[in-house]
């Protein structure tokens, strides 16, 4: 796929080359300004251009425009609204007009402005570029269940290829917010609860989406698209799970829980841009957090790209966080944010960076701070080759939703599905079944999760379609919706129960729901998504009763969760024959689910987030800190008897399933585990290699996720009971044995110590290795002397 699309790109680059090298008005007399010289070094081009810019031109480089807001009713650009924005949001318009408008906007930037600086066209693409006919992948929380960074890299390459073909250069992804507070509505956008897994997935996404430079770019250009890693940093664990609420934590949590995934993604993945977050951490709003945005990101890590505020995050400083005056465009907002290291302001609310010129002239804002922010923005433009290749390609259609892209999509769907419970009923066999009841409000619909374009929910393979297609004429499929997602009405149960009674097996599909990018903001009902938070994690409406009614028929019952977050329903865990979890799938979700149900594909997904038993037992994440975890559970028995305990009085802090859990149709036997070294000194540099031998001892070919959790036995501060530090996904045929090497970077074993610095402390580190966190097969010890 890479080869063919590269050839097509090249052909089109030639067609556009005369356009791309159009010489801007101002420079027609200057034979060869350095910034327009493709053979000059990036830093020389940046300084040359910066030196030519007026303060007003600099200000516009630090602000984002939006094509939608520059349109008249006739869908034509209104030139009085065009400004030489540093970046331009280009989304939520159909593909045809969008391609034209992107081209026209860019052409205006280059040909109708003094210095001809191209704008960075920005769009969304967490799990597919924001185009209704682009390839749409499962939600990120599902992608993470694949434990397959190579697949995430391929997926992100598809997103980058498709978006870039119409001239988009910057994608607002990956999302690295941790799902440690599952009441928060946006946890479906990230890679689950774990710092390490999130970092590996984020890095793979960046490598895939950024890709290589476009044909026609100078040698100094590195990439075609910039990833915008978000939300920097510590978002997603808000008080009460409420959107925009503060996050409580200190330097140690920031350094050890939140920042490592960002460092891995940004520095090792080479990300070019970053988005800040809406929240305040330890009382400091993210947009003005100089410690994180400058001291850590720039001075410690050496990041050289730009940071953009999330939409409206600068205005929020004044009317949400109240660190400035909300009654007028208080210049303090722009001064504080720019000084802290928020280089560019995204639109969406009144733009505070329009104060820049005046504040510099009044002496309230240091010009050097503005220059540095502009430098970072321009640097990314040169690294993207935008001055040489500013436009998309003519034949963009042929690179979007190709057969190859859809194939990657289906594989990701299949690897994202997690088999939670199975008493042996699965896989189903269509040759032995006469009938199957397909029941539930999720069976006949698509659920995509956040960040899909308007109209997306009308496209895709539903579970019902997937099952019907797979079984063909052999099996009678009896469909009943049973109930609506959003209602307590049980009048549909009768038909569902009848269908179940008359069938050999019943598959009941229940879960949460979300909306597309337009509906999301129209105040319609949904249970997950941006600004849609929950106070409970149980099934909404009549759904649990529907499962109970079907199970009561005595027909073997399989429950499928189609969801954007963990579902806390202990009754279902203990009373049905099998449970499958499908975090919001992509366009071929129904096909993938059918393939799993009928054993055409062996499930290999592992949970990226723990499923709490009840909302009241949060937090449920597996890597809870040592101490504070005595467990003497109580319970309410089915017969109504109350059995009293202490933690909790009538419950348990243990989740239904921990992070890392997932079953297969085959069995994996761990044969041996060996470390490359069992004793090292504190200044050791090489990775520790964990060599694991696993046998597929069952009847199905299958993929196993070999997981390595580490317990830092005695540390100078309290550390997690265990934490994931390495994993590998291995494909093993039935009866075969595989040996896999898993590198553990020593940086991963460092602790933010009692003296507030990262240290590889002396002592024992016990490595637990196996197919899950809860039930490791082996342990072995590394000693640091
Ligand atoms: C363009 O925008 C300006 C400023 O908002 C407005 O006055 C004008 O009517 C618009 N022109 C068209 C053709 O929509
Ligand atoms: C998406 O593709 C379908 C089928 O090819 C087509 O009918 C529809 O117009 C397309 N939608 C957009 C917005 O391009
Ligand atoms: C893009 O715009 C330029 C200048 O307006 C035009 O010459 C060119 O044909 C357009 N290209 C595409 C692919 O639409
Ligand atoms: C892209 O495809 C759409 C329909 O799917 C078509 O209307 C349009 O003309 C195509 N664009 C180009 C540039 O081929
Ligand atoms: C929820 O949304 C659906 C679909 O948009 C609508 O038909 C239904 O009436 C809504 N129900 C409630 C209770 O808001
Ligand atoms: C209720 O069930 C529990 C657990 O099975 C049992 O210990 C208890 O004796 C039962 N109580 C009654 C009143 O049947
Ligand atoms: C570690 O492995 C040994 C066997 O090698 C076993 O006896 C011990 O129980 C294991 N420890 C833990 C905490 O699992």
TrEMBL record:
<dbReference type="InterPro" id="IPR036962">
    <property type="entry name" value="Glyco_hydro_3_N_sf"/>
</dbReference>
<feature type="domain" description="Fibronectin type III-like">
    <location>
        <begin position="704"/>
        <end position="773"/>
    </location>
</feature>
<dbReference type="Pfam" id="PF00933">
    <property type="entry name" value="Glyco_hydro_3"/>
</dbReference>
<dbReference type="Pfam" id="PF14310">
    <property type="entry name" value="Fn3-like"/>
</dbReference>
<keyword id="KW-0378">Hydrolase</keyword>
<dbReference type="Pfam" id="PF01915">
    <property type="entry name" value="Glyco_hydro_3_C"/>
</dbReference>
<dbReference type="InterPro" id="IPR017853">
    <property type="entry name" value="GH"/>
</dbReference>
<keyword id="KW-0732">Signal</keyword>
<feature type="signal peptide">
    <location>
        <begin position="1"/>
        <end position="22"/>
    </location>
</feature>
<dbReference type="InterPro" id="IPR051915">
    <property type="entry name" value="Cellulose_Degrad_GH3"/>
</dbReference>
<dbReference type="GO" id="GO:0009251">
    <property type="term" value="P:glucan catabolic process"/>
</dbReference>
<dbReference type="InterPro" id="IPR002772">
    <property type="entry name" value="Glyco_hydro_3_C"/>
</dbReference>
<dbReference type="GO" id="GO:0008422">
    <property type="term" value="F:beta-glucosidase activity"/>
</dbReference>
<dbReference type="InterPro" id="IPR013783">
    <property type="entry name" value="Ig-like_fold"/>
</dbReference>
<dbReference type="InterPro" id="IPR001764">
    <property type="entry name" value="Glyco_hydro_3_N"/>
</dbReference>
<keyword id="KW-0326">Glycosidase</keyword>
<dbReference type="InterPro" id="IPR026891">
    <property type="entry name" value="Fn3-like"/>
</dbReference>
<protein>
    <recommendedName>
        <fullName>Fibronectin type III-like domain-containing protein</fullName>
    </recommendedName>
</protein>
<dbReference type="InterPro" id="IPR036881">
    <property type="entry name" value="Glyco_hydro_3_C_sf"/>
</dbReference>
<comment type="similarity">
    <text>Belongs to the glycosyl hydrolase 3 family.</text>
</comment>
